[in-house]
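Summary: Need help interpreting a holo structure output

Steps to reproduce:
1. Submit the protein chain below together with the SMILES for zinc ion.
2. Request a joint structure prediction with the ligand placed.
3. Inspect the C-alpha coordinate block that comes back.

Expected: a single structure record containing both the chain and the bound molecule.
Actual: see attached output.

Input attached:
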Amino acid sequence: MCQRGHRHTHAHSHASVRNHVEPGHSSRRDFLRVLMGGTLAGASVLELAWHRAAWARSAGPTDSKLFDLEKAADGVYFAKARAQAVINCNAAVFVRSNDVVVVDAHSKPSAAASLLAQIKRELTDKPVRYVVNTHFHWDHSQGNHAYRQTGSKVEILATNATKRLMSGLSVKRMHESADDIAQALEAMRKRAASSNSAAEKAFCAEQIRQMEAYEAELKDFTLELPDITFDDAYELKDSAFDLHLQFHGRAHTEGDVFVHCPQRRAIATGDASHGWVPNLGDGFPQAWPATIDNVMQADFKYVLGGHGPMQPDRTIMTCQRNYIEELTGKVEEGKRDGLSVAEMQKRFTVASLRSLQSNGYAAFLTRIQSEGHPRFSSADDSPLQNDINGNIRDIYNNLNRA
Ligand SMILES: [Zn+2]
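--- attached output ---
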Protein backbone atom coordinates (compact mmCIF):
# COMPACT_ATOMS: atom_id res chain seq x y z
CA MET A 1 0.00 0.00 0.00
CA CYS A 2 1.21 3.44 -0.72
CA GLN A 3 2.86 5.26 2.08
CA ARG A 4 1.40 8.64 2.43
CA GLY A 5 2.71 11.74 4.12
CA HIS A 6 4.64 10.85 7.23
CA ARG A 7 2.06 8.43 8.46
CA HIS A 8 3.49 5.59 10.44
CA THR A 9 1.59 3.06 8.48
CA HIS A 10 1.51 -0.62 8.17
CA ALA A 11 1.72 0.19 4.55
CA HIS A 12 2.10 -2.04 1.59
CA SER A 13 3.02 -1.55 -1.95
CA HIS A 14 0.14 -1.02 -4.23
CA ALA A 15 -0.57 0.49 -7.52
CA SER A 16 -2.54 3.32 -6.15
CA VAL A 17 -3.60 4.75 -2.88
CA ARG A 18 -7.03 4.94 -4.37
CA ASN A 19 -7.12 1.19 -4.74
CA HIS A 20 -6.40 0.36 -1.14
CA VAL A 21 -6.72 1.78 2.26
CA GLU A 22 -3.90 1.31 4.65
CA PRO A 23 -4.53 2.77 8.04
CA GLY A 24 -1.83 4.44 10.02
CA HIS A 25 -1.16 7.09 12.57
CA SER A 26 -3.29 10.07 12.04
CA SER A 27 -3.13 13.70 12.90
CA ARG A 28 -6.87 13.55 13.39
CA ARG A 29 -6.63 10.73 15.88
CA ASP A 30 -8.40 12.48 18.70
CA PHE A 31 -11.18 13.67 16.49
CA LEU A 32 -11.59 10.17 15.17
CA ARG A 33 -11.65 8.55 18.57
CA VAL A 34 -14.49 10.81 19.54
CA LEU A 35 -16.30 10.20 16.29
CA MET A 36 -15.97 6.43 16.41
CA GLY A 37 -16.69 6.28 20.13
CA GLY A 38 -19.82 8.30 19.59
CA THR A 39 -20.89 6.18 16.67
CA LEU A 40 -20.38 3.03 18.60
CA ALA A 41 -22.22 4.28 21.66
CA GLY A 42 -25.07 5.50 19.51
CA ALA A 43 -25.30 2.53 17.20
CA SER A 44 -28.82 1.29 17.20
CA VAL A 45 -29.72 -2.32 17.72
CA LEU A 46 -30.88 -2.32 14.12
CA GLU A 47 -27.52 -1.10 12.85
CA LEU A 48 -25.65 -3.74 14.81
CA ALA A 49 -28.05 -6.36 13.52
CA TRP A 50 -27.39 -5.10 10.02
CA HIS A 51 -23.70 -5.68 10.09
CA ARG A 52 -24.02 -8.99 11.89
CA ALA A 53 -26.29 -10.02 9.04
CA ALA A 54 -23.78 -8.73 6.51
CA TRP A 55 -21.15 -10.85 8.19
CA ALA A 56 -23.36 -13.93 8.08
CA ARG A 57 -24.08 -13.28 4.41
CA SER A 58 -20.42 -12.98 3.54
CA ALA A 59 -19.85 -16.44 5.03
CA GLY A 60 -22.50 -17.90 2.76
CA PRO A 61 -21.77 -19.73 -0.47
CA THR A 62 -23.35 -17.07 -2.67
CA ASP A 63 -20.98 -14.29 -1.71
CA SER A 64 -18.07 -13.65 -4.02
CA LYS A 65 -14.87 -15.20 -2.79
CA LEU A 66 -12.29 -13.13 -0.98
CA PHE A 67 -9.51 -15.69 -1.39
CA ASP A 68 -8.07 -18.13 -3.88
CA LEU A 69 -6.90 -21.38 -2.32
CA GLU A 70 -3.69 -22.74 -3.85
CA LYS A 71 -2.04 -25.99 -2.87
CA ALA A 72 1.65 -25.78 -1.92
CA ALA A 73 2.13 -29.37 -0.74
CA ASP A 74 0.06 -32.18 0.84
CA GLY A 75 -2.12 -30.52 3.49
CA VAL A 76 -0.53 -27.11 2.95
CA TYR A 77 -2.57 -24.40 1.26
CA PHE A 78 -2.09 -20.75 0.49
CA ALA A 79 -5.19 -18.55 0.76
CA LYS A 80 -4.31 -15.68 -1.51
CA ALA A 81 -6.30 -12.57 -0.68
CA ARG A 82 -8.09 -11.01 -3.61
CA ALA A 83 -7.77 -7.27 -4.08
CA GLN A 84 -10.13 -5.34 -1.82
CA ALA A 85 -10.52 -1.64 -1.06
CA VAL A 86 -9.54 -2.42 2.53
CA ILE A 87 -6.79 -5.01 2.29
CA ASN A 88 -6.88 -8.50 3.71
CA CYS A 89 -3.70 -10.43 4.35
CA ASN A 90 -3.17 -13.87 2.88
CA ALA A 91 -3.49 -16.91 5.12
CA ALA A 92 -1.60 -20.18 5.27
CA VAL A 93 -3.89 -23.15 5.87
CA PHE A 94 -2.47 -26.39 7.29
CA VAL A 95 -4.86 -29.35 7.17
CA ARG A 96 -3.66 -31.86 9.77
CA SER A 97 -4.89 -35.33 10.73
CA ASN A 98 -7.89 -34.13 12.77
CA ASP A 99 -7.96 -30.36 12.53
CA VAL A 100 -6.80 -27.25 10.73
CA VAL A 101 -4.28 -24.54 11.61
CA VAL A 102 -4.74 -21.12 10.00
CA VAL A 103 -2.02 -18.49 9.95
CA ASP A 104 -3.32 -14.90 10.13
CA ALA A 105 -6.81 -13.45 10.38
CA HIS A 106 -7.29 -10.55 7.93
CA SER A 107 -8.72 -7.08 8.49
CA LYS A 108 -12.24 -7.97 9.61
CA PRO A 109 -14.21 -10.91 11.07
CA SER A 110 -16.34 -11.28 7.94
CA ALA A 111 -13.19 -11.98 5.89
CA ALA A 112 -12.09 -14.65 8.38
CA ALA A 113 -15.63 -16.09 8.34
CA SER A 114 -15.52 -16.11 4.56
CA LEU A 115 -12.23 -18.05 4.59
CA LEU A 116 -13.65 -20.50 7.15
CA ALA A 117 -16.59 -21.19 4.85
CA GLN A 118 -14.29 -21.57 1.87
CA ILE A 119 -12.06 -24.05 3.72
CA LYS A 120 -15.17 -26.10 4.47
CA ARG A 121 -16.42 -25.93 0.88
CA GLU A 122 -13.14 -26.53 -0.90
CA LEU A 123 -10.77 -28.33 1.47
CA THR A 124 -12.06 -30.17 4.52
CA ASP A 125 -14.75 -30.62 7.18
CA LYS A 126 -12.11 -30.74 9.89
CA PRO A 127 -12.47 -27.86 12.35
CA VAL A 128 -10.03 -24.98 12.63
CA ARG A 129 -8.40 -25.55 16.00
CA TYR A 130 -5.55 -23.02 16.00
CA VAL A 131 -5.06 -19.55 14.56
CA VAL A 132 -1.62 -17.96 14.51
CA ASN A 133 -1.21 -14.19 14.45
CA THR A 134 2.20 -13.70 12.82
CA HIS A 135 2.26 -10.14 14.18
CA PHE A 136 -0.02 -7.52 15.71
CA HIS A 137 -1.00 -5.57 12.61
CA TRP A 138 -4.68 -4.86 12.04
CA ASP A 139 -4.88 -6.61 8.67
CA HIS A 140 -3.59 -9.84 10.25
CA SER A 141 -5.57 -9.87 13.50
CA GLN A 142 -8.81 -7.88 13.35
CA GLY A 143 -10.61 -10.97 12.07
CA ASN A 144 -9.72 -13.06 15.16
CA HIS A 145 -13.23 -12.62 16.53
CA ALA A 146 -14.74 -14.78 13.78
CA TYR A 147 -12.81 -17.77 15.12
CA ARG A 148 -14.45 -17.29 18.51
CA GLN A 149 -17.85 -17.73 16.85
CA THR A 150 -17.30 -21.12 15.24
CA GLY A 151 -18.90 -23.13 18.05
CA SER A 152 -15.76 -25.17 18.65
CA LYS A 153 -12.67 -24.33 20.63
CA VAL A 154 -10.12 -22.29 18.74
CA GLU A 155 -6.89 -21.12 20.31
CA ILE A 156 -4.97 -18.11 19.05
CA LEU A 157 -1.19 -18.21 19.16
CA ALA A 158 1.39 -15.44 18.98
CA THR A 159 4.59 -14.24 20.61
CA ASN A 160 4.42 -12.45 23.95
CA ALA A 161 5.63 -9.33 22.16
CA THR A 162 2.73 -9.53 19.71
CA LYS A 163 0.22 -9.97 22.51
CA ARG A 164 1.67 -6.95 24.29
CA LEU A 165 1.53 -4.86 21.10
CA MET A 166 -2.03 -5.98 20.39
CA SER A 167 -3.09 -5.09 23.94
CA GLY A 168 -1.55 -1.65 23.62
CA LEU A 169 -2.19 -0.75 20.00
CA SER A 170 -4.94 -2.77 18.30
CA VAL A 171 -7.89 -0.62 19.30
CA LYS A 172 -5.95 2.55 18.55
CA ARG A 173 -4.89 1.25 15.13
CA MET A 174 -8.44 0.18 14.37
CA HIS A 175 -9.63 3.72 15.02
CA GLU A 176 -6.80 5.06 12.87
CA SER A 177 -7.86 2.73 10.09
CA ALA A 178 -11.33 4.21 10.30
CA ASP A 179 -9.78 7.67 10.01
CA ASP A 180 -7.83 6.72 6.90
CA ILE A 181 -10.89 5.12 5.40
CA ALA A 182 -12.98 8.21 6.02
CA GLN A 183 -10.37 10.21 4.10
CA ALA A 184 -10.15 7.63 1.34
CA LEU A 185 -13.92 7.58 1.01
CA GLU A 186 -13.96 11.32 0.60
CA ALA A 187 -11.27 11.11 -2.09
CA MET A 188 -13.06 8.28 -3.86
CA ARG A 189 -16.36 10.19 -3.94
CA LYS A 190 -14.57 13.21 -5.44
CA ARG A 191 -12.88 10.99 -7.99
CA ALA A 192 -16.17 9.38 -8.98
CA ALA A 193 -17.78 12.79 -9.38
CA SER A 194 -15.01 14.16 -11.59
CA SER A 195 -14.54 11.09 -13.78
CA ASN A 196 -15.98 10.88 -17.29
CA SER A 197 -15.42 7.16 -17.57
CA ALA A 198 -18.30 4.81 -16.80
CA ALA A 199 -15.83 2.06 -15.92
CA GLU A 200 -13.99 4.30 -13.49
CA LYS A 201 -17.25 5.44 -11.90
CA ALA A 202 -18.27 1.81 -11.44
CA PHE A 203 -14.87 1.00 -9.96
CA CYS A 204 -15.20 3.91 -7.52
CA ALA A 205 -18.72 2.84 -6.54
CA GLU A 206 -17.48 -0.66 -5.70
CA GLN A 207 -14.53 0.71 -3.70
CA ILE A 208 -16.91 2.97 -1.79
CA ARG A 209 -19.23 0.04 -1.09
CA GLN A 210 -16.36 -2.04 0.29
CA MET A 211 -15.02 0.77 2.48
CA GLU A 212 -18.46 1.56 3.87
CA ALA A 213 -18.99 -2.13 4.68
CA TYR A 214 -15.64 -2.16 6.53
CA GLU A 215 -16.57 0.96 8.49
CA ALA A 216 -19.94 -0.52 9.43
CA GLU A 217 -18.53 -3.87 10.47
CA LEU A 218 -15.73 -2.46 12.58
CA LYS A 219 -18.19 -0.43 14.63
CA ASP A 220 -18.55 -3.40 16.94
CA PHE A 221 -14.90 -4.44 16.81
CA THR A 222 -14.05 -6.97 19.51
CA LEU A 223 -10.41 -7.32 20.41
CA GLU A 224 -9.44 -10.98 20.71
CA LEU A 225 -6.03 -11.47 22.26
CA PRO A 226 -3.89 -14.59 21.79
CA ASP A 227 -4.45 -17.45 24.28
CA ILE A 228 -1.13 -19.23 23.84
CA THR A 229 1.97 -17.08 23.82
CA PHE A 230 5.68 -17.72 23.81
CA ASP A 231 8.97 -15.85 23.48
CA ASP A 232 11.02 -17.88 21.02
CA ALA A 233 9.36 -21.11 19.93
CA TYR A 234 6.25 -23.23 20.16
CA GLU A 235 5.56 -26.54 18.51
CA LEU A 236 2.29 -27.95 17.19
CA LYS A 237 2.87 -31.66 16.72
CA ASP A 238 0.65 -33.92 14.66
CA SER A 239 0.91 -37.28 12.92
CA ALA A 240 0.50 -35.54 9.55
CA PHE A 241 3.34 -33.03 10.06
CA ASP A 242 4.77 -30.69 12.65
CA LEU A 243 4.54 -26.94 12.75
CA HIS A 244 7.36 -24.97 14.35
CA LEU A 245 6.30 -21.49 15.41
CA GLN A 246 9.49 -19.49 15.72
CA PHE A 247 10.67 -16.02 16.55
CA HIS A 248 13.98 -15.35 14.81
CA GLY A 249 14.60 -11.74 15.83
CA ARG A 250 13.09 -8.36 15.15
CA ALA A 251 12.10 -7.60 11.59
CA HIS A 252 8.73 -6.23 10.36
CA THR A 253 7.69 -5.84 14.01
CA GLU A 254 9.05 -6.70 17.41
CA GLY A 255 7.33 -10.08 17.53
CA ASP A 256 7.19 -11.68 14.06
CA VAL A 257 6.44 -15.39 14.01
CA PHE A 258 7.42 -17.78 11.23
CA VAL A 259 5.48 -21.03 10.92
CA HIS A 260 7.74 -23.70 9.51
CA CYS A 261 6.56 -27.12 8.35
CA PRO A 262 9.74 -29.16 7.90
CA GLN A 263 8.01 -32.25 6.47
CA ARG A 264 6.36 -30.20 3.71
CA ARG A 265 9.26 -27.78 3.23
CA ALA A 266 6.87 -24.83 3.62
CA ILE A 267 7.06 -21.68 5.74
CA ALA A 268 4.45 -19.03 6.51
CA THR A 269 6.21 -15.72 6.96
CA GLY A 270 3.59 -13.04 7.61
CA ASP A 271 4.93 -9.63 6.59
CA ALA A 272 8.54 -10.36 7.55
CA SER A 273 8.90 -11.75 4.04
CA HIS A 274 6.27 -11.32 1.36
CA GLY A 275 5.68 -10.44 -2.26
CA TRP A 276 4.98 -6.75 -1.80
CA VAL A 277 7.39 -3.93 -1.05
CA PRO A 278 8.24 -4.48 2.62
CA ASN A 279 6.80 -2.13 5.18
CA LEU A 280 9.10 -0.67 7.81
CA GLY A 281 6.64 1.53 9.70
CA ASP A 282 6.91 -0.63 12.81
CA GLY A 283 10.09 -2.31 11.65
CA PHE A 284 13.68 -2.72 12.75
CA PRO A 285 15.64 -1.99 9.58
CA GLN A 286 19.12 -2.87 10.87
CA ALA A 287 18.01 -6.14 12.48
CA TRP A 288 15.69 -7.35 9.71
CA PRO A 289 18.25 -8.83 7.24
CA ALA A 290 19.98 -10.87 9.97
CA THR A 291 16.57 -12.19 11.08
CA ILE A 292 15.92 -13.43 7.55
CA ASP A 293 19.39 -15.00 7.49
CA ASN A 294 18.41 -16.96 10.62
CA VAL A 295 15.14 -18.04 9.02
CA MET A 296 16.94 -19.18 5.88
CA GLN A 297 18.97 -21.71 7.82
CA ALA A 298 15.82 -23.84 7.97
CA ASP A 299 14.95 -26.27 5.20
CA PHE A 300 12.05 -24.97 3.12
CA LYS A 301 11.07 -24.25 -0.43
CA TYR A 302 7.55 -22.76 -0.43
CA VAL A 303 7.24 -19.31 1.09
CA LEU A 304 3.69 -18.35 2.09
CA GLY A 305 3.89 -14.61 2.75
CA GLY A 306 1.33 -12.26 4.25
CA HIS A 307 0.76 -10.38 0.99
CA GLY A 308 1.41 -11.00 -2.66
CA PRO A 309 1.72 -14.39 -4.35
CA MET A 310 3.07 -17.62 -2.87
CA GLN A 311 6.75 -18.11 -3.68
CA PRO A 312 7.89 -21.51 -4.98
CA ASP A 313 11.49 -20.82 -3.91
CA ARG A 314 13.62 -18.38 -1.92
CA THR A 315 14.39 -15.86 -4.67
CA ILE A 316 12.00 -13.11 -3.54
CA MET A 317 12.87 -13.66 0.12
CA THR A 318 16.51 -13.07 -0.76
CA CYS A 319 15.69 -10.06 -2.95
CA GLN A 320 13.66 -8.43 -0.20
CA ARG A 321 16.32 -9.07 2.43
CA ASN A 322 19.00 -7.55 0.20
CA TYR A 323 16.81 -4.56 -0.60
CA ILE A 324 16.22 -3.79 3.09
CA GLU A 325 19.94 -4.12 3.79
CA GLU A 326 21.00 -1.90 0.90
CA LEU A 327 18.43 0.84 1.50
CA THR A 328 19.08 0.84 5.25
CA GLY A 329 22.81 1.23 4.61
CA LYS A 330 22.20 4.17 2.29
CA VAL A 331 19.76 5.89 4.65
CA GLU A 332 22.13 5.39 7.60
CA GLU A 333 24.94 7.00 5.63
CA GLY A 334 22.69 9.78 4.34
CA LYS A 335 21.43 10.55 7.82
CA ARG A 336 25.02 10.68 9.11
CA ASP A 337 25.87 13.13 6.30
CA GLY A 338 22.93 15.32 7.25
CA LEU A 339 20.73 14.60 4.23
CA SER A 340 17.01 15.17 4.65
CA VAL A 341 14.43 12.48 3.91
CA ALA A 342 13.31 14.44 0.84
CA GLU A 343 16.88 14.62 -0.48
CA MET A 344 17.31 10.89 -0.03
CA GLN A 345 14.00 10.20 -1.75
CA LYS A 346 15.34 12.06 -4.78
CA ARG A 347 18.68 10.27 -4.66
CA PHE A 348 17.73 6.64 -3.94
CA THR A 349 15.75 5.74 -7.02
CA VAL A 350 14.45 2.44 -8.36
CA ALA A 351 17.15 2.53 -11.04
CA SER A 352 19.97 3.31 -8.61
CA LEU A 353 19.29 0.54 -6.08
CA ARG A 354 21.32 -2.52 -7.01
CA SER A 355 19.12 -4.87 -5.00
CA LEU A 356 16.04 -3.77 -6.97
CA GLN A 357 17.79 -4.35 -10.28
CA SER A 358 19.02 -7.82 -9.30
CA ASN A 359 17.07 -11.00 -10.10
CA GLY A 360 14.24 -8.98 -11.65
CA TYR A 361 13.04 -7.73 -8.25
CA ALA A 362 11.86 -4.28 -9.43
CA ALA A 363 10.01 -5.83 -12.36
CA PHE A 364 8.42 -8.39 -10.05
CA LEU A 365 7.24 -5.71 -7.61
CA THR A 366 5.89 -3.54 -10.42
CA ARG A 367 3.94 -6.46 -11.83
CA ILE A 368 2.47 -7.34 -8.41
CA GLN A 369 1.54 -3.71 -7.79
CA SER A 370 -0.60 -3.59 -10.89
CA GLU A 371 -2.13 -7.05 -10.43
CA GLY A 372 -5.87 -7.03 -10.07
CA HIS A 373 -6.15 -3.28 -10.25
CA PRO A 374 -7.76 -1.52 -13.17
CA ARG A 375 -5.70 1.39 -14.43
CA PHE A 376 -7.38 4.66 -15.15
CA SER A 377 -5.97 7.91 -16.40
CA SER A 378 -5.46 9.13 -12.86
CA ALA A 379 -3.28 6.22 -11.77
CA ASP A 380 -0.01 6.97 -9.96
CA ASP A 381 3.00 7.62 -12.15
CA SER A 382 5.46 5.57 -10.19
CA PRO A 383 3.92 3.42 -7.47
CA LEU A 384 7.18 1.57 -6.85
CA GLN A 385 9.14 4.78 -6.23
CA ASN A 386 6.31 5.99 -3.98
CA ASP A 387 6.69 2.89 -1.84
CA ILE A 388 10.47 3.22 -1.75
CA ASN A 389 10.05 6.82 -0.64
CA GLY A 390 7.87 5.53 2.21
CA ASN A 391 10.55 2.99 3.11
CA ILE A 392 13.21 5.74 3.17
CA ARG A 393 11.10 7.77 5.56
CA ASP A 394 10.34 4.79 7.82
CA ILE A 395 13.96 3.61 7.89
CA TYR A 396 15.10 7.14 8.73
CA ASN A 397 12.66 7.25 11.64
CA ASN A 398 13.35 3.73 12.87
CA LEU A 399 17.16 3.65 12.72
CA ASN A 400 18.63 2.65 16.05
CA ARG A 401 15.19 2.00 17.45
CA ALA A 402 15.46 0.52 20.90
ZN1 LIG B 1 2.19 -6.12 8.80
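--- end attachment ---

Reviewer comment: The chain has one domain: 29-398. Confidence is low (pLDDT under 50) at residues 1-63.
Status: needs-info
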